[in-house]
Design goal:
The chain is an alpha+beta fold. It is about 40% helix and about 20% strand. It has 2 domains: about 20-175 and about 230-315, Bira Bifunctional Protein, Domain 2 (BirA Bifunctional Protein, domain 2, 2-Layer Sandwich); about 325-415, Rossmann fold. Bound molecules: zinc ion (2 copies). One zinc ion binds next to helix 7. One zinc ion (ZN) binds near residues 192, 196, 212 and 215.
Length: about 425
C-alpha cells in the first residue's frame, strides 16, 4: 500500500536552496552592518515560559490572547513558541546582568517567530525577523543611529523605505491625552466600529491605529498626541528629528502610529515600502523604557525594532545574492572507474586548498560532463582519462574560452588552488 505523503503544516513552508541566496544576502549584510554599529548577536531559545510573553507583550493583545503556540511540556510547565523577540532579549539582558557593565548594550537577533495568524497571502505562522535592541540609554541620538543603520541595510539591498515617526509620550503626559481622547470618542461612539467602541473604554490609544475604513474620518479628527506632549517628551522628539536631519534622513510624522502597551514611551516608528502596499510595514520599532521592570529586571531604557524578513525577501530580485550560491570553481570530469578514484583524490586536494569542487558520481561521457560543468558555471574543468592517468598528467580546460592545457598534479594544485586562477 502506498503511504500518503506527509507535507508541511498549513502556514509553514520550506525555504529551498533555490531561493536561499536572497536570505543569505540579507542576513550577511545585516551581520556586517549591525556589527559595524556595535550591535552583537544574541540567540535566545525559540520557546520560553508563557509568562514572559503574557507580561512582556500583554495578555490582552491579539498576539498573546489569540495567536500564540502555547502548550504544556512533559513537566507540566506552560511553554510558548516565541511570537516576538524583544521580551526574550530583555529577559536575557536582565538574567545575565548585562546592565552591570554600565553604558549601552546593543544586541541583534535573526530567527524564526511563531504566530497562529489567520491565513493570508504573505503571512506565515513561522516567520522570520531581524531585530536589534539598544539597552541602557534614553538618548534620542541612539534612536537616530539605530534608524540610520536600518536604512543603510535597506539601501544596501536596493530597497527604498519610508520612515514614519511619532511620539507616544510618557507616563506623565499620556494619561491626560488618553482622557482627552476618551472624551472625544464618547461623542462618536455610534460611528465607531465594534472593536473601537470597546477600545474607547479599555485602550483608547488603539483606536488610532484602527484599520477599519469607517473609523478613518473619526481618527483623522482626533486630537494629536504630539500636540499634548510634556516638555521633556516634546524636547526628546525635537532632538530626535534634529539628529535624523543631520544624518540626511527624511521622515514623515504620523500621529496614528501608536503602540498599545504602557511601557512603550516616546518614539514609535515604522518603515514602510510602497512596493508592499499601504498597510504593510517592513519594520516596526520604538522605545520601551519600562519593559525590563515589567519582567522583574532592573530599570533599563530600551529602543529597538523588528523587521519582517519574509516581506523583505519579496522585495529583492529573485536572483539577488545568487553569485554567492553554489558555483564550483572546478569541475572534475573523469572517464572510467580508475580515473574516478583519481578524481576523488583531486577533488579532495582542491577542496582542502579552499576550492569549491564538483564531482559527478554518475560519470557519463566527457561531453555530458562538460555540459553539466557549463550548466553549473564552473570556471575550470579537470579532465582525467586513461591516457592522463598513465602519464600522471591532467588536462585543465578553461570554460570561458575552451582552451586546454596539460599539467602535472603539482602544477594542477598550484594553478587551481585558491589564490591561483
Ligand atoms: Zn511626557
Ligand atoms: Zn475602528
Amino acid at each position: 500500500m502506498e503511504e500518503k505523503l506527509i507535507t508541511t503544516v498549513p502556514g509553514t513552508r520550506d525555504l529551498l536552496p533555490d531561493e536561499i541566496s536572497r536570505w543569505h544576502l540579507i542576513e550577511d549584510r545585516a551581520r556586517q552592518i549591525f556589527t559595524r554599529y556595535g550591535f552583537l548577536e544574541i540567540r535566545t531559545p525559540i520557546f520560553e515560559a508563557t509568562e514572559l510573553f503574557a507580561r512582556g507583550v500583554g495578555e490582552d493583545t491579539d498576539i498573546v490572547g489569540k495567536e500564540m503556540y502555547t502548550f504544556h511540556d512533559l513537566s507540566g510547565r506552560s511553554i510558548s513558541l516565541r511570537p516576538e523577540n524583544t521580551a526574550p532579549v530583555v529577559r536575557a539582558y536582565a538574567q545575565h546582568a548585562m546592565h552591570r557593565g554600565g553604558g549601552l548594550t546593543k544586541l541583534y537577533y535573526i530567527g524564526p517567530m511563531f504566530r497562529h495568524e489567520k491565513k493570508q497571502k504573505g503571512r506565515w505562522r513561522q516567520f522570520y525577523q531581524i531585530g536589534a535592541e539598544a539597552l541602557g540609554s534614553d538618548h534620542p541620538a541612539i534612536e537616530a543611529e539605530t534608524i540610520e543603520m536600518l536604512l543603510e541595510l535597506l539601501s544596501s539591498l536596493g530597497v527604498r523605505g519610508e520612515l514614519l515617526l511619532n511620539s507616544v509620550g510618557c507616563g506623565r503626559c499620556r494619561p491626560d491625552y488618553i482622557l482627552l481622547l476618551r472624551r472625544e470618542l464618547q461623542h462618536r461612539t455610534n460611528d465607531l466600529c465594534e472593536d473601537c467602541r470597546r477600545r474607547a473604554e479599555t485602550n483608547a490609544l488603539r483606536v488610532l491605529d484602527c484599520k477599519v475604513r469607517s473609523c478613518q474620518p473619526i481618527v483623522m479628527q482626533l486630537p494629536r498626541i504630539t500636540d499634548h506632549l510634556c516638555a521633556e517628551c516634546a524636547d526628546h522628539f525635537r532632538r530626535l528629528q534634529g539628529f535624523l536631519s543631520d544624518a540626511g534622513i527624511g521622515y514623515g510624522i504620523v500621529p496614528r502610529l501608536v503602540r498599545g502597551l504602557d511601557y512603550y514611551v516616546r518614539t514609535a516608528f515604522e518603515i514602510v515600502s510602497g512596493d508592499l502596499g499601504a498597510q504593510n510595514a517592513l519594520v516596526g520599532g520604538g522605545r520601551y523604557d519600562g519593559l525590563s521592570e515589567v519582567l522583574g529586571g532592573p530599570r533599563a531604557q530600551g529602543f529597538g525594532f523588528a523587521m519582517g524578513l519574509d516581506r523583505l525577501v519579496m522585495l529583492l530580485p529573485e536572483d539577488a545574492g545568487r553569485d554567492a550560491g553554489y558555483r564550483p570553481g572546478v569541475f572534475v570530469a573523469y572517464l572510467g572507474e580508475e580515473a574516478f578514484g583519481k578524481g576523488i583524490a583531486v577533488a579532495r586536494a582542491l577542496r582542502r586548498r579552499g576550492v569549491t569542487c564538483h564531482l559527478e558520481f554518475a560519470g557519463g561521457s566527457l561531453k555530458s560532463q562538460l555540459r553539466q560543468a557549463n550548466k553549473l558555471g564552473a570556471g575550470h574543468v579537470v579532465i582525467i582519462g586513461d591516457q592522463e592517468l598513465r602519464r600522471g598528467r591532467y588536462l585543465i580546460r578553461r570554460m570561458e574560452d575552451s582552451v586546454q592545457w596539460d599539467v602535472s598534479m603539482a602544477e594542477l594544485l598550484e594553478q587551481l588552488g585558491a589564490g591561483g586562477s
